[in-house]
Amino acid sequence: MAPASKITGAEAPLLPNQAAEPEKRPSLPGAVFNVSTSIIGAGIMSIPATLKVLGVVPALIMIVLIGIVVEISVEFMLRFTYSGESRTYAGLMRESFGRLGSIAVQICVMITNLGCLIMYLIIIGDVLSGTGPDHLGVLQEWFGVHWWNLRAVALLFIVVFVMLPLVLYRRVESLWLSSAISVFLAFVFVGICSVMAITALIRGETKTPRILPELDSGVSFFNLFTAIPVIVTAFTFHFNVHAIGVELGKPAHMISAVRISLVLCAAIYFTIGIFGYLLFGDSTMDDILVNFDQGSGSRISSFLNDVVRLSYALHLMLVFPLLNFSLRTNIDEFLFSKKPRLVDDDKRFVLLSLVLLALAYVLAIAIPSIWYLFQFMGSTSAVCLAFIFPGAVVLRYSWDFYSKGQEHSSSDDNSCSNYKQHSYFHQYI
């Protein structure tokens, strides 16, 4: 059994070149910022729509339940990770289910992260360039419709001058400042929405929220099952658990960071969900940012609408490199498992970063909406990463423990004691 500090071969996440620069131990607040940024992404945009579909009370219950199950699954992942040799999600599945297990994780991470990166760029494009003649973007409202503020051109500028410098960082901890700023921008977004909703509530201009879902037709009943995957996707960050946790060091600190982040993010999700629903009622769009171009015409309203949209667009720009980090690592491990570490190969690192960025850009231009991406990922790859794979690892190790326990029951006390000491039930923190 490897000690907690051992990181081997191609399974190791991207770490700094120790010969080139001294290691700086990441802090717990930095880990909280990175975990929170990994969680709060495009999912927050569709949380108000889930309240519209599920109703306020069922949506709150689902947010709390999914948050609790996610915390348990992450704790399981860390427990079994530090009971073995590997320090990556794919390595953990390889130890449990062989090569097929690691391939399954890598494919799900690639689908989930690439889908999220595409959604981020779609939302940023919606904010800057709108979704059509009925919903203009911020740039088009300010300067009119020109070739340079069309979706393809505006996104290309963002990708080259904002995304590219951030994705070239080689350590997750290097992104702590951008993560802190992105969390602050999420609070700005939630704060402004809250003020607008409270103001509208005082004036009697809010919509009456639906406490329970309406099950008056088969379509409404089916919609309940399309809303839950959105919440699952909104809480899926398991692809970054090992990248952040290994750099942080002690598993207990990572668990604390995850718990703090989940409470913080659940509060943000429900706050923006209830206030967004109060503001727009049944007219709430799948992407609530689209609703914020429906100002009353006053200068203050237009200004707040623009601040809301731009603050969250900037938030997504800063979240982008975190998801790209784990996506790039998994693709490299999948395609180049025999090669040296990605951090030590400048040519491969830059080339893979550029290819992924270009692919996300092209697909964001080709795909017009985020809703179907949410539903697909939340019912397939995201639910596998968050719940199915961690649960399968627990069942596999539980079966091994039972089987080996039966074998050792007839052995001498020393071998039985040695087995218990090296089982996954040992105290790893």
UniProtKB/TrEMBL annotation:
The topology of this chain with respect to the membrane is: Multi-pass membrane protein
**Transmembrane segments annotated in the record for this chain:** 31-51, 57-82, 103-128, 148-169, 181-202, 222-245, 257-280, 310-328, 349-374, 380-399
Provide one Gene Ontology cellular component: organelle membrane
Pfam families found in the cross-reference section: Aa_trans
First-listed, main subcellular location of the protein, grouped into a coarse class: membrane
Annotated compartments: Membrane
InterPro entries documented for this protein: AA_transpt_TM
- Keyword Transport in the entry? The reply is yes
Record keywords: Nucleotidyltransferase included? no
Top-level taxon in the UniProt lineage = Eukaryota
> Which BP terms in the Gene Ontology apply to this protein?
amino acid transport
Q: Which UniProt keywords apply?
A: Amino-acid transport, Membrane, Transmembrane, Transmembrane helix, Transport
Residues in Amino acid transporter transmembrane domain copies = 28-397
- Protein name, entry field: Amino acid transporter avt6c
Taxonomic source organism: Castilleja foliolosa
